[in-house]
Amino acid sequence: MTNKQRIITYSAFAAIGAGLIVAGMLGHVDSAITGFGAALLAISALKLFKGYRYESDPAYARQVDASNADERLAFVASKAAEATFQVSVILLAVLSLVLRPLGGSDTADLLGCIMACEVAIYWLSYLFVSKKY
């Protein structure tokens, strides 16, 4: 994705976030959706600022390009994502097993389904990536 495409995408996300905030102020949505809109607006604004800085500051652009091409950082990020996924699946499985006898069968079922979806997405992405590389 080019920087101009990112700017268009994050501008759209910022507009959606602002719309959710306005809808919350008018009472059309609850506070959770309003908070989601505020978070979407804030993150989009930060991403837009980062894109503007990338376009306007050549030294910053060189630094970002160099860090994006650094294989060590890509390896560390990949290992961190792998560890996060493993911890997430194990934690969901343990919580699902612990909550069931404590009377939280609905919550345990939900956590088990989330875990199963994560594993299914992992399996599908593994199949896709293994064919790509």
Write up this protein.
There is one protein chain. With 133 residues, this protein is mainly alpha-helical. The chain contains 5 helices and no strands. The model has no long low-confidence stretch (mean pLDDT 88).
Question: What structural keywords apply?
Answer:
mainly alpha; 2 domains; flat
Low-confidence stretches: none
Distance between the termini: 20 Å
Helix/strand structural class = mainly alpha
SSE string: HHHHH
> Share of helix among residues?
over 70%
Separate helix tally: 5
State Rg.
20 Å
Strand content: under 5%
Topology:
Elements: H1 3-25, H2 31-56, H3 58-69, H4 71-99, H5 105-132
Helix pairs in contact: 1-2, 2-3, 4-5
Summarize the structure.
This protein folds into two domains: 69 residues; 63 residues. With 133 residues, the chain is mainly α.
